Amino acid sequence: MIKTRLFMAFLLAGLTNLACVLSVEAQSPPKWFVDLESGGVFPGYNDVGIPGDTGTRFSLTDDLSTGSSLFIRVRAGWRFHPRHTVLVLFAPLTLYGAGTVDFPIDFNGATFPANTPLESVYRFNSYRLTWRYGIKEGESLRIGLGLTAKVRDAFIELSGGGQTTRNSNVGAVPLLNFFLEWRFTSALRLLFEGDAAAAPQGRAEDVQLALVYQKSEKWAFRVGYRILEGGADNDKVYSFALFHYFLVGLTAYL
């Protein structure tokens, strides 16, 4: 009888503790956030050749002149567990160029004679879904690794001399996501974050380094630098580009 009462007491205490834990977890809302990023994007190199094995290789930034542009990126996230975060990103990019070259260009089945006034459009819109796991979740240091599924919606268009041709490319690629955040004061932290992958067929890197200021639980502001680089080399397309971003960002925690 005594053993039965002790067992029932232990069982009741265990169920009470479990109910308290579940109640606390149920009262803790999931951490949603929305991030807006804008600033200026400046082209580095942008070398193309289409088809990749027979097209004329030329530069949209050296042979033609491609200017800088404003940009905007939108990201939403859900930290549904202290160590698990899901992110969705939309990152559009469109740059325009113009100029003439002293050699003929064979591009995407069209031939542009030398000294033809040319105009170019370079578009590289990126859609990404990321899952990231927090390897370390400390007060001053956070480190995470994850996987990103990236869908690119891109094209390169060249026009001049009464003709226009466009090469479009839509495809998916897996990337490695990484995250490092060092809080060195109560309001300031250094953020190093990005997606990257490399293979014999090509590579892709999108990495930012930023200083984050946060005094409120609802808002965080940042300024920093982002590099976007990559491309592919195959018989259909040769395209490698580098872009520099100088950014400001705002994160709202919901």
Order of helices and strands: HEEEEEEEEEEEEEEE
- CATH homologous superfamily grouping: OMPT-like
* Total strands: 15
The rounded distance between the terminal residues' Cα atoms is 53 Å
Mean pLDDT: 90
Structure, described:
This protein has 254 residues and is mainly beta. The protein has a single domain, classed as Beta Barrel (Lipocalin). Helices cover 10% and strands 68% of the residues. It has 1 helix and 15 strands; from the N terminus they run αβββββββββββββββ. The chain has one helix at residues 2-27, and strands at residues 31-49, 58-59, 65-66, 69-81, 84-91, 94-99, 105-107, 110-112, 118-137, 141-160, 163-183, 188-199, 202-213, 219-233, 238-253. Strands 1-4-5-9-10-11-12-13-14-15 form a 10-stranded antiparallel beta barrel. It has a two-stranded antiparallel sheet with strand order 7-8. A hairpin with a 3-residue loop joins strand 9 and strand 10. It is elongated, with a radius of gyration of 25 Å. Mean pLDDT is 90; it is low at 1-28.
Outline the secondary-structure elements:
Elements: H1 2-27, E1 31-49, E2 58-59, E3 65-66, E4 69-81, E5 84-91, E6 94-99, E7 105-107, E8 110-112, E9 118-137, E10 141-160, E11 163-183, E12 188-199, E13 202-213, E14 219-233, E15 238-253
Antiparallel strand pairs: 1-2, 1-4, 1-15, 3-6, 4-5, 5-9, 6-9, 7-8, 9-10, 10-11, 11-12, 12-13, 13-14, 14-15
